[in-house]
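To fix ideas, we close by showing one paired sequence and structure record:
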Amino acid sequence: MSFTSGDATRWSDVYVVAGSRAVSVCGDFLAATTLALVLQQSGHGGLAVSGLLLAASVPLALLAPITGRLADRADSRTILTVVPLAQAVVCLALAFVSSPVAIIGLVTLLACGLAFTQPVLSALLPEMVQRRDLAKASGLSQTAGNIGMLVAPALAGFLVGSTGARLPLLLDAASYLALVVAALFLRTRRKGLKAHQADLAKWRLRDDRTLTVMIGVLAATIAGVSAINVFEVFFIRDTLGASTTVFGLVAASWTAGMLLGNVIFSRVPPHRISVPAVLMVVAGSCLPMVVGATVPGPGWLFPLWIAGGICNGGINVFVMVIIAGRTPGSVHGRAFAALGAAVQGAGVIGLLAAGPLVDQFDARLLVAAAGAFGLVMTLAGALVVRREPPSDPVASGSVPVRDSVAA
């Protein structure tokens, strides 16, 4: 595990990363919402929209073995300048095409770029901070991303309605250039020193069974949540009879809860953050789904979805601390890429399964089943973790490696 080798956390770098994350996430969701609206307005059906979602997710899962290794071997500044520049060019092209095939192909290229930059940014954060400050830094980064997620859909709807699709896509291209500027301002830098090749060669996720179980439970839960993103449209609109406005507010309440969760759980002391604690907040994010499936009206979902979002925010903060603490610093790129692959792959499975299920079963039953599935997987994971001895990289012989330098 590797944290900043200086005497103090580089908060200026943390703020730069958080700011760039807010801009880039807003840009990504702005483009995704815009393109979905474009496909819908052009008369293309659910197949085209599903293809768009898959194009944005599949590359992150498939490329993880390559991008994780590159994140640990290459200069972080090089990756964070070259790749976003290429993404900006792709986004410029998106602003001038209308064919669904071309749109999906270009979105796939954008997702390939994201597969390269995500593990680099995740691996940089532990290098910027002292161990005691990682939860707070992670909370700041997650909060920035959630703000971008909240702003983007409304902004996309306004811009597409008033100016058309081109402007929001050009703004997304500008967001990638903002990431380039942020990379040039960062003092923290991972250079993939050759002295760490032994760590790179011998580290395997499955050697830490507790960490593997945690990621497996997260993946299973994400599969259920991804399916619920499809189910809830039919559940809230058809079963509960909510208007489109109420549906939008209910969906936004989960993200609002995540913002609260980021603030609340970023204050938890590092010694209290453990894999069992992660499993507890995972269960806390699933339980409101089960209860929500029993409500008589949409108004009941607001407090439940906020509660689930709060636990979701805790998951995001805790997972960053756990992975940074249980893996050598020289392989953080691979570790975070493995997490990203599991989450994205599970999300794809959930989306693929949801479509046929909606046509066969009642939406209320599907929401309850998805939440219950997450609870069962969490309980099973907790039983496995309880039997496992704690695994610490230092105790097992992996000495912390400090591979960050001030530029």
About this structure: Residues 265 and 314 are 5 Å apart (CA to CA). Residues 390-407 have pLDDT under 50 and may be disordered. The chain has two domains: 1-190, 204-390. The first helix runs from residue 11 to 41.
